[in-house]
Specification:
This protein is mainly beta. The protein has one helix and twelve strands, in the order αββββββββββββ.
Length: about 190
């Protein structure tokens, strides 16, 4: 009986040691998902001051060296659209045209407009976007569009904006401190 008790105690000791040594495992998992919101930042740097609108120059007169466009976006399908927002109480019929401005807070009304509307485009130098030219009259249309490729998201820095303006001998010289002006607004959008 003593032997049976010792064997039973030995089995209990071995069984309890084995229970303490045996690894305990529990498997569980979690799924993590996320997607950032579409973001776009458009920065336009520079101005064109005292543009030589000489009608004897080859037409249209192109200006490519003073204003740049930068786009930062995490979305592959995006647009940048220029428009004439009719700032400073610019008369509606002058939309898209350089109009008479006298340096006061508002455009001259009634004033004189150049006979031809301005057009705008952006240089194409990197993959990821397509470019186009738009005339500033009517409904605005995009001058740069993310082409949906993997290269279309990112930073496009300091692309030259190209402004074209025709000047004709019928466009009068303004006197008394007035000059022709247009304020172009650039809007970036993601769907």
């Amino acid at each position: 009986m003593k032997t049976k008790a010792l064997i039973l105690i030995g089995i209990l000791i071995i069984a309890s040691s084995a229970a303490m040594i045996a690894p305990v495992m529990a498997l569980t998992s979690t799924t993590i998902t996320g997607n950032p919101p579409a973001e776009i930042t458009v920065t336009v740097t520079g101005n064109i001051v005292n543009w030589n609108l000489d009608p004897s120059l080859p037409q249209p007169i192109e200006n490519t060296s003073f204003v740049t466009l930068s786009v930062t976006t995490n979305y592959r399908a995006w647009t940048v659209t220029p428009s004439d927002g009719l700032d400073n109480s610019k008369p509606g019929p002058s939309k898209g045209y350089m109009a008479e401005f006298n340096g006061a807070p508002n455009y001259v009304n009634p004033g004189i407009d150049l006979g031809n509307p301005m057009s705008v485009s952006v240089e194409k130098v990197t993959p990821g976007y397509t470019n186009a030219t738009t005339t500033m009259t009517g409904s605005p249309s995009a001058i740069a569009t993310g082409d949906g490729s993997i290269h279309a998201a990112g930073v496009f820095s300091n692309k030259n904006l190209i402004f074209n303006q025709e000047s004709d001998y019928t466009d009068p010289v303004l006197t008394g401190g007035e000059y022709y002006q247009i304020i172009v607004t650039f809007t970036g959008a993601t769907p």
